[in-house]
């Protein structure tokens, strides 16, 4: 069987074998291996018995009550009749590929690198998890479509996860064969030279970044530094000490007839030497904590560039060239720390004649988060420039309560197909936290899993086999339907809105909208909301009634249940808002009590998995709703 075998063929041949990502080629045999109570794991001499591979595999075997000891290949110990052997060989050509054979006498894994062996071990763990102590005979030949497969988590809009949460996420990424990880940082790093910029957050320290870097490296993941370096600087520039570095004040933009994105300065002034000095100091503290060979300098959405203090220079050379000069400056800073740069591609693609002048080692990140984003068109443009680039879809969970499953899957699949067609060197999923990072990490696990699947094997469909594999291995749920239920709950956004809502779900905005406002209420009607309630309620019962077996099962389950409850709250609010200017006092008191319970649950779960940081910002949303219902209850009582 060749490496171009399709997932559909795998399902047809072995419908009982569930793996994620789907291997490129899987051939069942007539054998099976009944694992004995004791055996050996034979490792190449370069791998220690306490390596991530060995620990991962021995832990899974111990769960099944099998005691397997590790020894080095060629050691003097007498061979044990039951073996799992990992071998480095030049017969596997792809540096991340592997061959895994399960026969009647044991398991044999071959790869050209330790990383390939690690991925073979991840596949073997999934076979053990599903088939327990009797493994089916199989020969797997596997390798990834994209050499760089990444996940970027926004930690700057509200949630700063605890170290335990981040390490658990890294383990999830490793299990899905992801090999690049980024934490999007604006001001949530503890800069010693600039302590004022993070005093309203609970930041990660340099020591913690180094600890995460080591944790990633042991799992063959490159921990890439990611730092806003031009736009998205509002959290810093709003502070009096740094406001002088801004390109333009919002009021000046308004005087020009331009509506600013927020009420604080947005971008650094690229023509101010003090901006360059400031960024230099940030890089000097930030970058040495990462062993990765690249840094994501971001520089996206710098919409105000050339509209303020740099206007005269922009008029002289053009906004595009002004932007290019800043990118070259960022590249020079990165090179001083032995790193090449990544940058988001949304600005430079508007100046296609300048792409060729980017630093030759710069990697462009083509991002877009809707199902119809023109990945193919933009990828073709970047490919023609000769510059390396990634395709970067998103989980579609931000600005939502239960996600936007269909949009996420289509967005991720189209990115993978376009990337493959135009020879992208990488695939980077993004998980943003717009407007306070309302959604917990658990909501993102399903779309994250699909992104991992298509970044390894771009032809992977979001079908029954995929959902069952996610249920079995990502959530480790009792029911193989668990991920499908989550997907259906994440499609509620399609039933609530009467039209299309971009980059968000309507029920999320309805949850935030005050009772007496109509902007979002006008985008739905009673029939749509009733249909959504009828679909969501039984899904909520199934999801909350199932059992998970992950290390963090309780937290994940509680986070999912909480967001489902919040979606039901939003729909109940909306149903009543559509039919009554003032609800009954009974309904108002009932909702007020539910929001008090939801507030405490939200606070508790946030603190179990995240640092305090901007939790109070999110709690104020609950407080506003509680106060609103108290007022509505009083109004209803007076009307009597």
Structural account:
This protein is an alpha/beta fold and 640 residues long. Helix 4 links the parallel strand 8 and strand 9. It has three domains: 136 residues, Chitobiase, domain 2; 315 residues, Glycosidases (TIM Barrel), CATH 3.20.20; 155 residues, Up-down Bundle (Four Helix Bundle (Hemerythrin (Met), subunit A)), CATH 1.20.120. The N terminus is likely disordered. The termini are far apart. The strands form two sheets. Strands 10-9-8-15-14-13-12-11 form an eight-stranded parallel β-sheet.
List the defining traits of the structure above:
7-stranded mixed beta sheet, Chitobiase, domain 2, TIM Barrel, 3 domains, Four Helix Bundle (Hemerythrin (Met), subunit A), disordered N terminus, single chain, globular, 640 residues
Quick description:
This protein is an alpha/beta fold. The protein folds into 3 domains: 7-142, Chitobiase, domain 2 (2-Layer Sandwich), CATH 3.30.379.10; 148-462, TIM Barrel (Alpha-Beta Barrel); 485-639, Four Helix Bundle (Hemerythrin (Met), subunit A) (Up-down Bundle), CATH 1.20.120.
